[in-house]
């Protein structure tokens, strides 16, 4: 699950950087940042759901 949501973040980050007319380094940085952010958010959501819904 984290991988899928992380890949969605990578795609959104790359799209956003391209939309802002970024070069290759900008696209890679946005993709990495969004991928990490989305994966961490998915992990936190999974932990919260696991702890609250038994």
Tally of helical segments: 2
Task: Give the low-confidence spans.
Answer: none
> How far is it from the N-terminal to the C-terminal residue, by CA?
19 Å
| N-to-C series of helices and strands | HH
Biggest pleated-sheet summary: none
Describe the structure.
The mean pLDDT is 94. By secondary structure, the protein is an all-alpha fold. It has one domain (2-52). Helix content is 87%, strand content 0%. It has helices at residues 2-19, 24-52.
Short description:
By secondary structure, this protein is mainly alpha-helical. It has one domain. It is built from 2 helices and no strands.
Topology:
Layout: H1 2-19, H2 24-52
Provide key terms for this protein.
single chain, 54 residues, mainly alpha, 2 helices, 87% helix, 0% strand, rod-shaped
